[in-house]
Amino acid sequence: MTEVDQPLALDHQHALDRDCTTLSRHVLQQLQSFSAEAQDLSALMNRIALAAKLIARRLTRAGLVEDALGFTGRTNVQGESVKKMDVYANQVFISVFEQSGLVCRLASEEMEQPYYIPENCPIGRYTLLYDPIDGSSNVDINLNVGSIFSIRRQEGNDLDGTAQDLLQNGHQQLAAGYVLYGPSTMLVYSIGRGVHAFTLDPSLGEFILSSENIRIPEHGPVYSVNEGNFWQWEESIRDYTRYVHRHEGYTARYSGALVGDIHRILFQGGVFLYPGTIKKPEGKLRLLYESAPLAFLIEQAGGSASTGTQKILDVIPEKLHARTPLIIGSPEDVALVESFIQEHNREQRDRPILTSKD
Ligand code: P6P
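Above: inputs. Below: predicted complex with 6-O-phosphono-alpha-D-fructofuranose.
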């Protein structure tokens, strides 16, 4: 045997195989198919990876690039101040998908109406729903931020441009996931066959498979909630918070950026809550761009996601930018929060109705 014919040492072979497991190849392996839809999903995930690389590159140099940080002075459809990075990241997704031929419509948390790509519409029958930079308040202080994405089929021609076909429950999602821009850039996704994580290797410019078939712990120590809203919560959420304050084994972690908090819980277990508040009774987080994609992914990892009284994936939005309360994470920890809500609702129901005669 010549030197070239010599087989690589097993660990080197494994490393080489792993480095060749790119996102697009993994999708096809997952589907065990080369059908048109499998090829589409593979190509869609590849485009999302390209968007993630472009955003990661900008973030890593944001402090050095003129005009990358700070606010634009505008507010978005959510009523939030728009950061320059929000605008850049939103445009990245549009540019990346305009050339793809796959996506007919882009619905972004940053845009009041969907963005149509007419030249793609006869061919590409998919809609990408995304939050281009989630947690953008962290950008200027160099803390982790994320992108959240969801892919749905476009049903019908949406000729009136109101995207009514998107007002369906989260079970209609074909794929969902997030990109975490942290010490490393990770892309975590599911096409309904488990949850898998890829880490960007900057030397290759490729996302390489780093964790496959991730399962969330049944229970974990983390509870992640902005306790500054305590005064605005329902009594049931306050009772849950008092419970974890008084019992050993809980630890509070809250970064102000949903993707990082969810990623921690995916690997360590626990629960993230953004309940309704006095100012936002329906909650702050957006169903189509944040809660539903993350619910799809966390349920694929064996976790749970609810509004407190309804599974997130069953919620049918009344409008594109609908918000929901979100309780998401390890099944035992989500169930504990729900038990306080159920108990509170039972007490409310059983409370005798006092009349003027009483
Ligand atoms: P608060 C960021 O604006 C975001 O949408 C999520 O990423 C994050 O979890 C949440 O809002 C933080 O909101 O009210 O605690 O600052």
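The domain at 222-350 is CATH 3.40.190.80 (D-Maltodextrin-Binding Protein; domain 2).
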